[in-house]
Amino acid sequence: MKYAARMFSLVICVVMVATMFSFAPGVFAAESGEEPAEYQISVIPSAGGTVSVDPETVTEETAAKGVKVIVTPDKGYGVSSIKINGEAPDTTVSGPVSSGSSFVWTIYPQEDTNVQAVFHKSNGYVFVMLDAGHYGNVNRSPVLKSYYESQMTWKLQNYLKQELEEYTNVVVDTTRSSQSKDMGVYERGTSSKGYDLFLSLHSNATSSKSTDYPLIITQKGNTKDALAVMLGQIIESVMDTRQDYQIWQRLNKDNKTEYYGVLRGSKSVGTKGMILEHSFHTNLTAAKWLSSNSNLKKMAEAEAAAIAVYYGLSKEGSSTIPLKKPSLRIYNTDYRTLTLKWGKSVGAQGYVIYRSRTKNGTYKRVKTVKSGSTLKFINRKLTCGTTYYYKIRAYRKFGGTTRYSNDSAVKAMKVRPAKPSVGIRSGKRKITVKWKKVTGATGYVVYRAKKKNGKYKKIRTLKRSARSYTNTGIKKGKRYYYKVRAYRKVKGKRIYSEYSRTINRKAK
Q1: What is the C-alpha separation between 69 and 56, in angstroms, rounded?
Q2: Best CA proximity match to 328, nearest among 338, 318, 337
Q3: Is 414 in contact with 497 (CB distance < 8 Å)?
Q4: What is the separation, in whole angstroms, between the first and last Cα of the chain?
Q5: Contact between residue 198 and residue 219 where contact means Cβ atoms under 8 Å apart
Q6: How far apart are the C-alpha atoms of 138 and 129, rounded to whole Å?
Q7: Which of 116, 121, 144, 190 could cross-link 265 (Cys pair, CB 3.0–4.6 Å)?
Q8: In 3-state terms, what secondary structure has residue 234?
Q9: Are 350 and 368 a contacting pair, CB within 8 Å?
Q10: Rounded to two decimals, what is the model's pTM?
């Protein structure tokens, strides 16, 4: 009986203990001081965009719900991928899901986790780094006490940044965020790493108060760079300087490294760099011009347009800034040759010339000129007596594509012998007209009039070997006017040159 009573008491105790722990989970954990594990989610910053996570802290229980990773690329960049703890994501990651301009991944961390996005530059974007030449109040004008180069370049930098950012496919940054902060010249150049263009903005100084030419200083070997030429032309034109722009390069004594730190720095990181000297603040007219905010805005707009043409940038809702169509002129050179000349199209890398035998016929390409500074083409081996029609357009290559200007107006020219170069001398009751040989000429015709603008009559036709004609039996003291033209026979028909210049003499 006593044994049975003891067993009953033991069972009751076990049940009570079990009941106590079944209604109080975590008692042992509470007694031992342990808490559920927490995982920290941290972000490693990367150039080209921003990354945020939500939430930043999870526990073992809440990690199963996932952590949002929001990746937003900067303008001009795209998202390549994300890295979880330095490695490519595995099955613990889902996404990305596009959310406007951002992308969202969901991760399921099982430990403390760091997240990093990998960004890349987007195709078709141009990256420009602007550098205001000086900081604070530096380089005061000796002829205009209110002018400081540092203040002008800071304003111009900001105006130029605003103008460039009107274009959709450009990213613009500045070397410094504040005008009051200084920065080493070499470091200013190296800050353009990964950019397409580095521009350092300045005004120049010299002992002469009359000097006012704009100056573009390039890296070694770039003095014929098309953009440098364009910017030099722009500054000269907008400021209306008395002297023409110049393009220089300046090297150290080793004749290899750049003298200027900003150009040395930009070149070291593979970025095309230039210093733009906006005339001279030692010239009163230039200093006054550069002191005007409206003038600086005008300059920024013009420089931005030149950069846009060079790189093929476009504005929202508009096509790429077009190249200006060239203006074409044609000259007769000789009986088989025409010379074409045209006006420069700013930003052009070259020109394409087309030709037809009828104005509204099919035009075929006859020449691609692969230099934007070459403005002449000699078309040889043509047929004498035939009229040829020409048009030309400028082109520029960018981003794997070639962009063209509109065609020029059609110009026509008949191929004929060159007009003779003539001379004259007088003798006793005679006048001798002389000329130089005209290539391909079959003969020459001499014409005479009694007045410069009178009616000219043919007085003699001569063979190809003739180089002069003496007009005898004329009145003493009477003035006579002459001109000559060459001709070439083609299939029995005479093809005449233009008339020579008019020459005159009095007979003795």
Answers
A1: 10
A2: 338
A3: no
A4: 175
A5: no
A6: 22
A7: 190
A8: helix
A9: yes
A10: 0.58
